[in-house]
Amino acid sequence: MSALQYPVPSVLFSLVAVALLGACTTAGTSALVKLEDEPAGENCANGGTRVLSGADTDGDAKLDSDEVDSTAFLCNGTDGSVGTDGTNGTDGTDGTNGTDGTNGTDGTNGIDGTNGTDGTNGTDGANGASGSNSLISITEEPAGDNCVYGGQAVSYGVDDNNDGVLDESETDGTAYVCNGSTACAGYSQDLGGGTGCWYTAETTGLSCDDVCADHGGFDSVASTHVGSAAGMYFWPDKTSDSGNWMSVECSSTDNDTNWGADRSTPDPTWSFGACYVNCACVN
């Protein structure tokens, strides 16, 4: 620890020496005082300052250890009692709210709880009103678009007015049960439009619709051909004319000629007063 050394004039040193040390120096020799820290201990309970004094006998302005004539101690006093706390200061202004932190990760879903006990069955509701009956109606279906060879039309629906009869307004739909083809009772031959069942009119002035009325209807596909082969079959005594006159064959009575068809779409309503028409029918 560093020490402080102070040269002291002889007059001032005399005063300090009398007060602290009660020692004197030789006339003409400077008196020195050296201050050092004194730790807490036997000399000073709370520590303090060690005051060394003596004459500078070698004149080097330093108080050497062999020049120390006296030692005194200036000790620190005991710590005073703790003072009363001062009045609390005024609260400072609240600081700005900090930025919200990032949302934490969702936790794992918990285990499903046990299913609860089934509740008691509710009371049965009142019986509903009786429904209406379904009805069907079966009628004959003539040969035509719905049944080539004729058959039966089966209509069905709900009897809304409960009168036991399937009225037209109650019909929801119609299905058809069609007859199968029957053997050809006429001349079965393919004359160019496919195999047809050929007939000749019983009298002049009839159309193919008239001829085929009892034979499943007119077969326009098989009737589409060119020539007079059907007429030559039915009326071999009539001459075969090379001319193809109309869309259906005509075996005339006024000139005894089998006029041929011209392969245009056959007209089932065509007739001529002096002709037996030759037509392909369904059966």
Set out the fold topology.
Elements: E1 4-8, H1 10-21, E2 31-38, E3 48-55, E4 68-75, E5 134-141, E6 151-158, E7 171-178, E8 187-190, E9 195-200, H2 208-211, H3 220-223, E10 226-227, H4 229-234, E11 239-246, E12 249-252, E13 257-262, E14 275-281
Parallel strand pairs: 11-13
Antiparallel strand pairs: 1-2, 2-3, 3-4, 5-6, 6-7, 8-9, 9-14, 10-13, 12-13, 12-14
Q: How many β-strand stretches? A: 14
What's the Cα radius of gyration? 73 Å
Question: Can you tell me the number of structural domains?
Answer: 3
N-C termini distance: 147 Å
This entry's quaternary arrangement is single chain
Beta-strand content: 25-35%
Query: Tally the helices: what do you get?
Result: 4
Description of the molecule:
About 7% of the residues have low confidence. The protein has 3 domains: 72 residues, no CATH class; 45 residues, no CATH class; 95 residues, no CATH class. With 283 residues, the chain is mainly beta. The longest helix has 12 residues. Strand 12 and strand 13 form a beta hairpin. Strands 8, 9, 10, 11, 12, 13 and 14 form a 7-stranded mixed beta sheet that branches. The protein has a 4-stranded antiparallel beta sheet with strand order 1-2-3-4, covered by helices on one side. The protein contains 4 helices and 14 strands. Helices cover 9% and strands 32% of the residues.
